[in-house]
Design goal:
globular; 11% strand; single chain; mainly alpha
Length: 108
């Protein structure tokens, strides 16, 4: 079960910082696709023991920023985001997800 925190100044609709899901407004707590996306990030964070996840996320973003020269393209091409966006509509994805599944998306 996710622990929600409403943070109105959040730069995105939601953000996963294990064990919390920060949401920009209370209404987002009911968006099952958005929450599933964030729960996928929770699993990624757990399998990398939190701190390495954040370091890899940031490093992947910075490399992508050099490649794409666009914040939005750099963000969308972070391997962790690719996995989350690819499977966010599959509400049972986390029941069958293989650990480190995001590795398949490197260079994809």
């Amino acid at each position: 079960m996710a622990l929600f925190i409403v943070f109105k100044k959040l730069p995105a609709a939601a953000m996963a910082i294990y064990p919390f899901i920060l949401v920009k407004s209370k209404a987002y707590k009911n968006d099952v696709v958005l929450i599933n996306h964030e729960k996928i990030h929770h699993q990624q964070q757990l399998e990398l023991l939190l701190i390495p996840f954040y370091l890899l996320y940031l490093l992947n973003y910075l490399i992508n920023l050099l490649i794409y020269k666009s914040h939005y393209k750099a963000y969308l091409n972070i391997v962790f985001e690719k996995e989350a966006y690819l499977h966010e509509c599959e509400l049972t994805y986390l029941t069958t997800r293989k650990r480190y599944n995001w590795l398949k998306l490197i260079k994809a």
